[in-house]
Amino acid sequence: MASRSAEPRGSSQSRTGNGSPTLDDVSLAIIEQLQEEGRRPYAAIGKAVGLSEAAVRQRVQKLLDQGVMQIVAVTDPLTVGFRRQAMVGINVEGDVESVADALTGMPECEYVVMTAGSFDLMVEIVCEDDDHLLDVINRRIRAIPGVRSTESFVYLKLKKQTYMWGTR
User: Fold this and answer.
1) Smallest Cα–Cα separation from 123: which of 82, 76, 162, 86?
2) CA distances to 43, 46, 131, 150 from 123, in Å
């Protein structure tokens, strides 16, 4: 989560001691504007946050360069040929990060999250069909050194998917 700094309104983000960007209220407001509408013109964002179009363009580029945000097209997997989604819980023996790194290299793995609890990793997988899902889990994920067990949670219906949490 981003932290709000005490920087003046016109200042841009800086780095904290731990390397994470510290975002001022204007940068947070720009992010919220783009989360509402990723194609919103910089001039409209500038009007909403009190900056010029050029200043908004610079801020957005800096946020992108720092990895604070991405601007992407979000698709409905069903409409683009991916008929099977699942969440897979994975238990690992040994180094969790090496298994997580191997999973991040698989295009079917949309999210890879290290967790505390019943599983060491939770991975969201998007596949073309059940055969593709079986192949990914059985032949590829279970073949990664250190994977002890998997448990699959096949999606029956997606009720909500949003990226509108703002910057709280």
Assistant:
1) 86
2) 39, 38, 18, 10
d(CA 120, CA 113): 8
Distance from the Cα of residue 29 to its chain's centroid? 19
Other CB atoms within a 10 A radius of the CB of residue 59 amount to 24
Total-model pTM: 0.72
Token pair for 55: 């200043």
User: Residue 55: which of 16, 24, 21 has the closest Cα?
Assistant: 24
Question: Rounded distance, CA 18 to CA 58, Å?
Answer: 24
Strands 14-15 and 21-22: antiparallel
What whole-number distance in Å separates Cα of residue 45 and Cα of residue 56? 7
* pLDDT tens string 108-161: 999 999 999 999 999 999 999 999 999 999 999 999 999 999 999 999 988 887
